[in-house]
Write a structure and sequence with these properties.
Layout lengths: L1 H19 L4 H13 L2 H26 L7 H18 L7 H28 L3 H23 L24 H5 L8 H18 L1 H11 L1 H6 L4 H17 L1 H10 L10 H11 L4 H17 L3 H4 L7 H29 L1
């Protein structure tokens, strides 16, 4: 509840800026709401943006709990997505439902491996995970682009994308969410993302591993003195983070597009950092934070057409002020608590 105060303060300041740009803040807000929730089609698009943000928010949150900063969710989801597409193209004879399970498992494995690399380097070599994950993002983008354009390209299109996966790998015909929101990319992976978020909450707060994870993030020296293996936690947390980011392959490749498209991600991995911060790294809170960010991303899409001075990029400004508002509120609460303790 306290974080909602910071959220509304940040939103208010962001909308106030539009006044100085010559726009009516209430008009801008109405555009955002109408564009995000004005119809079933709009809501479907909002959910389609929300789903990958849940996966990426969880990815960043898990690493934060371990005292790590995973800036590599973008690269991890990219490698997972191209892997899912490659499996669906190279092994077309696998029957349903084993086909999507195979592709998704391969995507999670590769995403986890892409998280393992910085985790292992941090644990064994002391390399900083931020630097390693940033470099791996570029390597992932280059590798995926090469595979999409040179190895498994779509020969029937001039767009930079892979060929379509076999129909055995798609589950649209059995997808209730896709039927509720026709003509949108929304699919059953939204329900999967919510399930995984709840599962991660249980793991982090109700299991021994979760306790060790949080203990390492809170005080690594004390955790090691208590017998917790630092290297194990560092490596496992990054593997899990990579696998969670890899969940984007389910929504973007197997659930909707049926192929890997170069540049399909509007920086889901980086927006996931904002989602995790807004949710205070709580997996349940990630669901609502991702929905908010997804709604802002979709709502801002109509600003180009409805206003003369505000563009869709304004969603980034709103996101920034919301994060600043929440962070400022948390800092104010920290100062207030410190003063009470001193007195």
């Amino acid at each position: 509840m306290k974080r909602l105060i910071g959220l509304f303060v940040g939103l208010f300041i962001a909308l106030l800026i539009t006044f100085f740009a010559g726009e009516n803040p209430f008009h801008i807000f109405s555009i955002l709401i109408k564009s995000a929730f004005g119809s079933m089609y709009d809501l479907g698009l909002t959910l389609s943006y929300t789903t990958p943000l849940i996966f990426c928010g969880l990815s960043v949150a898990v690493s934060f709990h371990a005292g790590l900063f995973n800036v590599g969710a973008e690269g991890q989801l990219t490698m997972a997505a191209i892997t899912a597409a490659a499996v669906g193209i190279l092994f077309p004879q696998v029957p349903f439902p084993f086909a999507p399970i195979l592709a998704f498992t391969a995507a999670l494995f590769v995403g986890g491996f892409w998280g393992f690399i910085p985790g292992w380097l941090r644990a064994v070599r002391g390399s900083h995970e931020v630097i390693i994950t940033i470099m791996l993002n570029f390597i992932a983008a280059g590798t995926a682009n090469w595979l999409a354009l040179k190895v498994i390209p779509n020969l029937n299109s001039q767009n930079p994308e892979t060929a379509m996966v076999s129909n055995n790998y798609l589950f649209k015909d059995y997808d209730l969410i896709a039927r509720i929101f026709p003509d949108t990319p929304a699919n059953a992976s939204f329900g999967v993302a919510i399930f995984i978020a709840v599962l991660m909450w249980i793991i982090i707060w109700k299991t021994t591993f979760g306790f060790e994870l949080r203990a390492m993030g809170a005080n690594s020296e004390a955790a090691q003195r208590a017998g917790i293996s630092k290297n194990k936690i560092l490596v496992l947390s990054m593997i899990i983070s990579g696998m969670l980011a890899g969940g984007v392959a389910l929504s973007e490749v197997l659930g909707s597009a049926g192929q890997y498209r170069v540049g399909f991600s509007p920086d889901y991995g980086f927006i996931g950092i904002a989602v995790a911060l807004l949710a205070n790294n709580n997996p349940i809170g990630v669901i609502f934070a991702a929905f908010l960010m997804g709604a802002l991303h979709k709502g801002a899409a109509d600003l180009d057409m409805e206003t003369t001075t505000i563009t869709r990029d304004f969603s980034r400004i709103i996101q920034a002020f919301i994060i600043l508002g929440v962070a400022g509120q948390a800092y104010w609460e920290h100062l207030r608590t410190s003063r009470i303790r001193k007195n």
